[in-house]
Specification:
The protein is of the alpha+beta class and 329 residues long. The chain contains nine helices and 14 strands. The chain is 33% helix and 22% strand. The strands form three sheets. It has an eight-stranded antiparallel beta sheet with strand order 2-3-7-8-11-12-13-14, sandwiched between helices.
């Protein structure tokens, strides 16, 4: 299940509505020591983003934030679907890309691994289906989704296993299109967290579309995260959290057709209102929250058991919270 070519996607919508309601993830920091929380807010891959650094040295914090923003800029030039000339834009335009960057090769390889682990429920080549829906609702506002025949035609262009990924060359399936929006926010979150960690930062909360906590808050406690729609608090220390929620981002006024698309059926899944995944890696959590949103509870249980350190919180359509995987303390 992926999202868009630009503007608001499921990740961006989740972040944007964090201040008002719905299915957002909201960090709730606090400080009781001499260090304080120094915050930056802005955007990354078009999504609302935030950095919180616990420090008593504001100049050092601002310098670190500037370095992080330079890294975000570099990665946007690789993964942004709405930035002209980015690697992924050039790949989609030509269907192939020579001399892909190290980050592109690494994330594509990780994407294929996550596709295998989720048995195809996460598939970065589902973009043709997303584009079909976007074009359909632009031309047919207020109507239901595209007819089955058009969905089937778009699905013929989908298939992660048909990507050809080499050290010096990437090729998409015939007439294929790629989106990494279901994993790139997690990857950028990890890159920023790792950059800060290697420079000695030990009390940080990174939100680049997904969340990753380094160490504790400045008061020595875990970072407190609120899953708003489920009204459930989660503690993060050296962990990541990613969330998917269909109704947070739709193509039209019809809540049944969201930006989250099952790459097997070409339709929006409805068994969950929101699904959150905890893991040490924001990249892994991001891809899993994308793919598992289309899974049955039995499927989630089976997949979560394969991946050490995974915890899943799934709020079903009836409002019941179900948990899967390891409980990390």
């Amino acid at each position: 299940m992926q999202n868009s070519t630009g503007g608001i996607t499921r990740r961006r919508a989740l972040t944007i509505v964090a201040a008002t309601a719905a299915t957002a993830v909201l960090p709730i920091p606090g400080s009781s020591s001499t260090a304080r929380n120094i915050e930056w807010t802005g955007t990354a891959l078009g999504a609302d983003a935030k950095l919180i650094l616990c420090s008593d040295d504001e100049a050092r914090s601002r310098a670190a934030i500037a370095d992080c923003l330079a890294e975000v800029e570099r990665l946007e030039n690789i993964f942004s679907l709405y930035r002209k000339g980015s690697e992924i834009t050039r790949l989609n335009a030509a269907g192939h890309l020579a001399a892909p960057s190290h980050d592109m090769r690494l994330l594509l390889a990780t994407s294929q691994t996550m596709s295998e682990l989720t048995e195809g429920l996460y598939d970065p080549t589902v973009q043709p289906v997303w584009e079909l829906y976007a074009d359909w609702f632009t031309s047919n506002p207020g109507q239901d989704g595209p007819p089955a025949a058009l969905v089937s035609q778009a699905l013929e262009r989908v298939g992660y296993h048909r990507m050809d990924i080499r050290a010096d060359f990437v090729k998409l399936p015939p007439n294929g299109r790629l989106t990494l929006n279901g994993i790139a926010q997690g990857y950028i979150t990890d890159r920023i967290a790792d950059l800060l960690r290697t420079r000695g930062w030990t009390h940080v909360l990174v939100n680049m579309g997904e969340l990753r906590a380094l160490g504790s808050n400045s008061d020595g406690q875990s970072w407190k995260i609120l899953l708003r729609e489920a009204n459930k608090g989660i503690s993060l220390t050296n962990r990541s959290l990613a969330t998917s929620a269909g109704e947070a981002s739709t193509f039209s006024d019809n809540p049944a057709v969201s930006h989250l698309i099952n790459p097997g059926t070409g339709r929006s899944p409805h068994q969950f209102r929101s699904l959150s995944v905890g893991h040490k890696s924001a990249t892994v959590a991001d891809a899993l929250s994308t793919g598992l949103y289309a899974a049955t509870p039995q499927h989630i249980s089976r997949i979560a058991a394969r991946i050490p350190g995974v915890r899943v919180w799934a709020l079903d359509a009836g409002g019941e919270m179900r948990t899967f995987g390891e409980e990390v303390r």
